[in-house]
């Protein structure tokens, strides 16, 4: 009978190297359906770390690091590579394009934003009517998507209908905070790479860097089928709504709070987390003195929504780095939360044994 | 050789909110000093630069006025880890969510404008624009540190980097009116190797976006024989399609209306025709919306003209101009100045 393994491998730390990797990942453009830029970075990173690496039919990167001991659990770890963005749908005169949103985007976030268009990342802007020409009654209505255009200038022969676009936002550090686009879920991707780099010997480590999460968990579904794990951990970023309320009342719907540590999911709109895995994560945090928070049960969803229903069922749980303003041009997260997410997951994997799944 | 694009990029990378124009003022002192005979700063902070003409004294003078101030935001209150703010100049709150800003507290702090989620706003606000008083700024700092660094009244500038689009279009914040400041700079460069009889006052004015305070006081101090306000106008594009908007990259506009003296309008138009500089006449039925409104009624009155550069998405952080239009404005001003006869001032008369 095997006991939970003492920490065999060194616990991973977030240092300059990890921050530089996160910066590259955040600045890369990978709107759902065209994850190639992030995939190139992921492949470059995981090839030296994994025993096997392949890219599947949908574009997921599946990397395996075998256990170094007998009777190891097959554990899937998933983080999605894609991000929300735009697709150009119609060309008009003078470098103007109509566009649609890809993934959950609030149209109120669009006016006045620069964007990068296509794989060459050509610059463009989403403008708005000058306030001088705006009638008072218009101000009470959101600017409709069908009146907005991506403007790439009059001479952009390389831009065409079907191209994707994302917010042109460069990653920034600000005091204790990390600010960038697509940190949902590049924080997860960067975490998964570091976990693989420090993979504990007691588990069969099955890493899935998934595609098309933002448009329906498509990559995770087929990745879970292919990897056929005994349990799954999904690493994502979940909203922190820890803002003041408009009337000064107590904010009881904060979902998560920045600075309070990794957010463990019990329930979201797509998944009821496996209680044994929730318990294991909480006990690990308490035992190791790693701060964590429980995400308020509610809406939203992660790759776990597709994974837990795959094959004959896969016990699953999600852990997120909390972040404010997901799916906008700038997400704000805390470095300490990322560090603690990495620490909690690494410890939880190191302490994982078949006993965790015994009973309910 | 004066390169307009890098200079304009540099100009819009400096903050200079109305009333707080010093950073852009200082940059312009460095850029203009070698091109003029003297530089001075007005009591309100406008930059005055004199390039003397070669005509007999007493020489008439022309004032080129381009405002250097820009719209922006200002901190009103601190609320935990967040700031609330108001606006300086005309800002549509619908363009604010998600914008990067620089907060000029005890030191510059990057931040982002935040639209709170629907469930933290009044129920009837869902899906609707969020008014400015309910937006926040997040500087990514803990409450204690924020309170040490930021106070109500601190200014907040847009912090979007300049972006070159295809076909010589530059996008960024504050191109209203740094594009015109760049055009005046181009004009001063051209005058280095052009004879001109008149004295030329180049003024980078303050506070156009709020009170026109710079234009009133500069015209009073300098008492020019005539004045041209250089500003931006609406370019045709998304959200601007009627007679008030002009094609981007197809030339400058020459203002026509009660702010403008018809004789100067005609003389500038003649210059443009002679040099084949493309232009369109911009009709300004009551207000020109430029410094000319103040220049015209300073002291005993100044005959005025308005030359404008078409610009898309005015008063957003992604304003866009065609660099050729900026060049054309500079060239037209220099050519007009070079063509001013010493006695032109006597021709600015009402032919009734």
Q: Keyphrases for this structure?
A:
heterodimer, A: 360 residues, alpha+beta, Aminopeptidase, Elongation Factor Tu (Ef-tu), domain 3, 2 domains, 7 helices, 23% helix, B: 352 residues, 11-stranded mixed β-sheet, 6-stranded antiparallel beta barrel, globular
How would you portray this structure in words?
The complex is a heterodimer of chains A (360) and B (352). Helices cover 23% and strands 25% of the residues of chain A. Chain A is an alpha+beta fold and 360 residues long. Chain A folds into two domains: 16-83 and 181-357, 3-Layer(aba) Sandwich (Aminopeptidase); 85-167, Elongation Factor Tu (Ef-tu), domain 3. In chain A, the strands form two sheets. In chain A, strands 1, 2, 3, 10, 11, 12, 13, 14, 15, 16 and 17 form an eleven-stranded mixed beta sheet that branches. A six-stranded antiparallel barrel of chain A has the order 4-5-8-7-6-9. The longest helix of chain A has 16 residues, at 335-350. Mean pLDDT of chain A is 95; it is low at 1-8. Chain B has 352 residues and is an alpha+beta fold. Helices cover 25% and strands 27% of the residues of chain B. Chain B is built from eight helices and 17 strands. The mean pLDDT of chain B is 96. The chains are: A alpha+beta (360), B alpha+beta (352).
Strands, helices and their partners?
The complex is a heterodimer of chains A (360) and B (352).
Chain A: H1 16-27, H2 36-46, E1 52-55, E2 61-65, E3 73-80, E4 85-92, E5 96-102, E6 113-117, E7 122-126, E8 150-151, E9 164-167, E10 172-174, E11 177-180, H3 183-197, E12 203-210, H4 218-227, E13 231-239, E14 263-264, H5 275-288, E15 293-294, H6 304-307, E16 316-324, E17 331-334, H7 335-350
Parallel strand pairs in A: 3-12, 3-13, 13-16, 14-15
Antiparallel strand pairs in A: 1-2, 2-12, 4-5, 4-9, 5-8, 6-7, 6-9, 7-8, 10-11, 11-17, 14-16, 16-17
Chain B: H1 4-12, H2 22-32, E1 38-41, E2 47-51, E3 61-67, E4 72-79, E5 82-88, E6 100-104, E7 108-114, E8 136-138, H3 143-149, E9 155-158, E10 163-165, E11 169-172, H4 175-191, E12 199-205, H5 213-222, E13 226-234, E14 252-256, H6 262-275, E15 279-283, H7 292-295, E16 304-312, E17 319-322, H8 323-338
Helix pairs in contact in B: 1-4, 4-8, 6-8
């Amino acid at each position: 009978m095997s006991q939970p393994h003492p920490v065999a491998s060194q616990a991973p730390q977030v240092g300059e190297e990890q921050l530089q990797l996160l910066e590259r990942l955040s600045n890369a453009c990978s709107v759902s359906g065209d994850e190639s830029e992030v995939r190139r970075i992921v492949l470059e990173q995981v090839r030296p770390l994994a025993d096997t690496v392949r890219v599947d039919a949908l574009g997921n990167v599946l990397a395996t690091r075998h256990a170094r001991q007998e009777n190891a659990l097959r554990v899937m770890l998933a983080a999605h590579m894609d991000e929300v963005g735009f697709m150009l749908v119609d060309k008009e005169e003078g470098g103007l394009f109509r566009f649609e949103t890809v993934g959950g985007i609030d149209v109120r976030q669009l006016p006045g934003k620069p964007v990068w268009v296509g794989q060459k990342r050509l610059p463009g802007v989403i403008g708005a009517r000058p306030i001088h020409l705006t009638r008072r009654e218009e101000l009470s209505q959101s600017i409709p998507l069908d009146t907005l255009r991506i403007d790439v200038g009059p001479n952009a022969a390389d831009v065409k209908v079907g191209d994707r676009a994302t917010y042109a936002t460069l990653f920034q550090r600000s005091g204790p905070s990390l600010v960038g686009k697509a940190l949902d879920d590049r924080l997860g991707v960067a975490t998964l790479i570091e976990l693989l780099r420090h993979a504990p010997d007691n588990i069969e480590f099955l890493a899935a860097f998934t595609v098309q999460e933002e448009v329906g968990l498509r990559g995770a579904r087929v990745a879970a089928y292919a990897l056929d794990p005994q349990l799954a951990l999904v690493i994502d970023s979940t909203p922190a709504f820890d803002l003041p309320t408009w009337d000064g009342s107590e904010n009881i719907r904060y979902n998560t709070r920045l600075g309070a540590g990794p957010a463990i999911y019990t329930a979201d709109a797509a998944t009821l987390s496996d209680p044994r895995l929730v318990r294991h994560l909480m006990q690990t945090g308490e035992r190791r003195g790693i701060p964590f928070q429980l995400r308020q049960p509610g809406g939203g969803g992660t790759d776990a929504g597709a994974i837990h229903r795959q094959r004959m069922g896969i016990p699953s749980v999600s852990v997120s780095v909390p972040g404010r303003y997901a799916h906008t041009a700038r997400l704000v997260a805390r470095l300490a939360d990322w560090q603690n997410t990495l620490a909690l997951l690494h410890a939880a994997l190191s302490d994982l044994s078949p006993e965790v799944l015994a009973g309910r | 050789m004066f390169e307009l694009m890098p200079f304009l990029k540099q100009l819009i990378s400096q903050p200079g909110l109305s009333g707080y124009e010093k950073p852009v003022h200082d940059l312009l002192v460095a850029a203009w000093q070698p091109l003029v005979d003297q530089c001075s700063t007005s009591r309100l902070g406008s930059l005055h630069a004199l390039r003397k003409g070669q005509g007999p004294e007493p020489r008439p003078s022309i004032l080129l006025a381009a405002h250097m101030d820009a719209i922006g935001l200002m901190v009103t209150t601190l609320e935990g880890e967040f700031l609330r703010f108001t606006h300086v100049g005309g800002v549509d709150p619908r363009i604010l969510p998600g914008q990067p800003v620089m907060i000029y507290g005890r030191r510059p702090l990057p931040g982002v404008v935040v639209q709170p989620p629907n469930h933290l706003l009044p129920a009837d606000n869902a899906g609707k624009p969020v008014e400015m008083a309910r937006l926040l700024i997040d500087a990514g700092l803990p409450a204690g540190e924020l309170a040490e660094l930021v106070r109500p009244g601190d200014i907040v500038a847009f912090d979007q980097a300049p972006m070159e689009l295809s076909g010589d279009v530059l996008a960024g914040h504050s191109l209203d009116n740094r594009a015109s400041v760049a055009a005046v700079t181009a004009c001063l460069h051209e005058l280095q190797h052009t004879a001109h009889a008149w004295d030329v006052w180049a003024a980078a004015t303050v506070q156009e976006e709020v009170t026109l305070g710079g234009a009133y006081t500069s015209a009073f101090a300098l008492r020019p024989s005539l004045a041209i306000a250089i500003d931006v106008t609406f370019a045709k594009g998304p959200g601007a399609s009627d007679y008030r908007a002009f094609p981007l990259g197809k030339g400058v506009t020459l203002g026509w209306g009660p702010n403008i003296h018809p004789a100067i309008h005609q003389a500038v138009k003649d210059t443009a025709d002679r040099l084949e500089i493309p232009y369109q006449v911009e009709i300004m039925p009551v207000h020109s919306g430029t410094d000319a409104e103040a220049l015209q009624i300073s002291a005993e009155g100044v005959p005025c003209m308005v030359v404008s550069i078409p610009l898309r998405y005015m008063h957003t952080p992604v304003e866009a101009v065609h660099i050729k239009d900026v060049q054309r404005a500079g060239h037209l001003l220099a050519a007009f100045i070079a063509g001013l006869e010493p006695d032109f001032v006597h021709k600015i008369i009402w032919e009734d």
